[in-house]
Design brief:
The complex is a heterodimer of chains A (281) and B (263). With 281 residues, chain A is an alpha/beta fold. Chain A has 7 helices and 12 strands. In chain A, strand 11 and strand 12 form a beta hairpin. Chain A is globular and about 60 Å long. Chain B has 263 residues and is an alpha/beta fold. Chain B has a domain of 79 residues. A 6-stranded mixed sheet of chain B has the order 6-7-8-3-9-10, with helices on both faces. A 4-stranded antiparallel sheet of chain B has the order 2-1-4-5, covered by helices on one side. In chain B, helix 5 crosses helix 6, helix 5 packs parallel to helix 7 and helix 6 packs across helix 7. The radius of gyration of chain B is 18 Å and the shape is globular. The chains are: A alpha/beta (281), B alpha/beta (263).
Chain lengths: 281, 263
């Protein structure tokens, strides 16, 4: 084991991890409900995933295999830093392969590959309150959640349609969990929303700055909000991934030169590598 | 239930409603009945407890003593202070409406006019964009706001238009009881006159029961069937509007009536 002598396992002290696990248990018991927790200072700035890191630290065990993605990629700064952080403080095995991971911490994406019941997906959440931009008072939004007063959420979608002719929200698209709580799915593209519905893996959400944890237990209904005459739709592309040729994945547009050259490639690097590796062989 | 109950009972029955702010009296022992289709004006000078009373009656403020019973469509007279918060808030977005003096308190300034009108519909479960929009247009016409401005923000509207929009937003779910707090305050006289005209038309057409707080006796004379005169938190005189204004009995009412500027 290469675990550092100066750190407790996974950085946080045991009392803190117990506190966070209690919050997680409550969150799992009330799907979609935001549970307040005593978020700690982490050795990284707010907005870089302090909530997700604390949740990961609390669920991680010695035998776990960790994968960290940022915008679907394993090799971006945020993903590399957090992976190294846990290598150093917990000494756990890490991987870039979705299928081999038991805990996946993510920012802005859900892996393309279907997750299994023995996996946990941990999301980093900047603003956990979906009603925040319409109702700035926390006391009021909590009451609205408690009383299931969710008309305001549709006001936002109404505004989208009246201004753009369609629901123009493309990420952090609000969902209703287990036919009860309205939840912010973190800034994942709405392309990923259908994957949350009845997912086999446990989904945990951590917001460090806002000090909230929420969860979607396995096989829970997750419904994206919409209007009867403007049903929920996901993004579509008229081309396939330029590297692996996938037609079912979420594509990033990459600018390749200063002359307007561009290509569309999978945002999920592991998914893309696997496919292009197998097609090349 | 049976058809006669609707008219056999007052829509709102207040008994000895009292509210004090520490030593400071808000309102004391206010009792009255409000019948369906009736407009009741509460007049008095600033600080006489009008707004405190209105906030108590609309359950936005809990009184220290007394009860207010509201005649619900399904189960008759119910004490609003004994209802759960969920029930009260449900009433507030269905059966009741509250028109604030300042439209900024009653409108969402950063969402479009159409969404402002549609919000109550969506709050009670409307999920068809086309229908919601059609009803918003319909109501904007009813309150004489240019429908081409349906996607504009209320903050770009004039004061009179904002107030009319606030009324549309409140009436869209077909409330039976409307609370108004100085709805014409701060508007110039010609705009005031048109707004009063509009309110009077809507009240008659929709058979609304209204409690309107105002310090403007002309507003009371124009809109109200009955009025209560308040001073220092107490009702000093009440009766039919014309009777109170033309033949005031209490010294304070006489002072109020004689203080009206003659144009």
């Amino acid at each position: 084991m290469t675990r550092g002598q100066t750190y407790n396992f996974a950085y946080l002290d045991e009392q803190t991890k117990r506190m966070i696990r209690r919050a997680i248990l409550k969150a799992v018991a009330i799907p979609g409900y935001q549970v307040p927790f005593a978020s700690r200072e982490m050795p990284m700035p707010y907005g870089w995933g302090t909530g997700g890191v604390q949740v990961t630290a609390s669920v991680l065990g010695h035998d776990d295999v960790l994968k960290v993605i940022d915008q679907g990629a394993d090799d971006t700064t945020n993903a590399v830093s957090i992976r190294k952080f846990f290598q150093k403080t917990a000494g756990v095995e890490t991987t870039t392969e979705t299928a081999n991971a038991s805990v996946i911490q993510t920012r802005h994406r859900i892996p393309e590959e279907e997750l299994r019941a023995d996996q946990i997906l941990v999301y980093q959440v900047p603003i956990p309150e979906p009603l925040r931009f319409l109702e700035p008072r926390e006391t009021e939004t909590r009451t609205m959640h408690a009383l299931e007063e969710y008309g305001l959420m549709h006001v936002k979608l109404y505004e989208d349609i009246s201004r753009h002719g369609h629901i123009a929200t493309t990420y952090a698209y609000p969902v209703r969990v287990n036919a009860r709580y309205i939840m912010d799915p973190s800034p994942i593209p709405k392309f990923d929303n259908p994957k949350m519905h009845r997912m086999a893996a446990l989904q945990l959400f951590g917001a460090g700055r806002e000090k909230r944890i929420y969860a979607i237990p396995p096989y829970t209904q997750v419904h994206s909000l919409d209007f009867e005459d403007h049903p929920f739709e996901v993004q579509q592309w008229d081309q396939a991934c330029a590297i692996c040729g996938a037609e079912v994945s979420f594509l990033d547009e990459i600018i390749t030169d200063d002359a307007g050259g561009r290509m569309f490639v999978c945002s999920d690097t592991d998914f893309c590598n696997k496919r292009s590796g197998s097609t090349a062989a | 239930m049976n058809g006669s109950r609707e008219t056999d009972s007052p829509i709102l029955l207040a008994e000895a409603v009292s509210k004090a702010y520490g030593e400071q009296l808000g309102c004391v022992d206010i009792s009255f009945e409000l019948w369906p289709g009736e407009v009741l004006a509460i007049v008095g000078e600033s600080g006489s407890g009008k707004t405190t009373l209105l906030n108590c009656l609309s359950a936005q403020l809990m009184p220290d003593r007394g009860s207010a019973r509201y005649h619900r469509r399904n189960d008759g007279l119910r004490d609003i202070y004994a209802m759960s918060e969920a029930e009260r808030r449900f009433l507030m977005r269905t059966d009741w409406a509250f028109v604030h003096q300042n439209p900024r308190d009653g409108l969402r300034m950063n969402v479009s006019a159409g969404a402002n009108v549609g919000e109550r519909l969506m709050a009670v479960g409307a999920r068809h964009y086309g229908d919601i929009r059609a009803r918003a247009v319909d109501w904007m016409e009813k309150v004489e706001v240019d429908t081409s401005r349906i996607d504009h923000f209320p903050r770009t509207f004039s004061g009179g238009m904002q107030q009319r929009l606030q009324i549309a937003r409140n009436l869209v779910t077909g409330p039976r009881l409307v609370f108004m707090d100085e709805p014409t305050g701060g508007l110039d006289v010609s705009v005031q006159a048109r707004l009063l005209d509009l309110i009077r038309g809507l009240v008659t057409r929709l058979q609304l029961s209204v409690i309107i707080v105002t310090h403007d006796l002309a507003v009371a004379r124009l809109l109200a069937h009955r009025m209560m005169v308040m001073r220092d938190g107490r009702v000093v005189e009440q009766g039919l509007t014309d009777q109170v204004l033309d033949d005031p009995q209490h010294a304070y009412t006489q002072l109020l009536v004689s203080s009206v500027l003659q144009a």
